[in-house]
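Hello,

Our lab assistant flagged a job as stuck in the queue for most of the afternoon. It eventually completed. Since we weren't sure the result was trustworthy after the delay, we are filing this so someone can double-check. Below is the sequence as submitted and the structure that was eventually returned. Let us know if re-running is recommended.
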Amino acid sequence: MSISTRLRVLAALVGLVAPVCLVLASEAGSAAPVRTAEREPAARSITVAVNKKSVKKGKKVTLTGTVVAPTDPSCVPGQVLDVQRSTKGATYPVVGTVTTDAAGAFTFSIKVTKKARFRIAVAASATCAAAQSPPRTVDVITPAN
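-- returned structure --
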């Protein structure tokens, strides 16, 4: 097995997500290195807004926003986004998913039972970088008796 094949197998076993550029000696034994050029994943960002800053306990809020990728329009439509909610601390577990439309827009409604911060995230792919929106806070109003 050649060294380049061994390196490819090792990279697959390690589970590298990002493209790796390797400098390999040619298999003919030449001293000149062979470079494999890979392009950087396209940068993208996510905007998000909530329709209400505060709601009564048990009512829904709607999160709307867009995925923006100025250098690669293919990183916008059909993206599966994770909706994350934090009610305490800095952890943001996933509470749902939503898919972007052809323009990169999304809408997601969720019931709020206590004060929470919401954010939207998208995982990296071979051609598109990961992105995460800034958090948006929703307060819960306790009705007066």
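-- support follow-up --
The delay was a queue issue, not a problem with the job. The result is valid. The longest helix spans residues 3-14. Confidence is low (pLDDT under 50) at residues 13-28.
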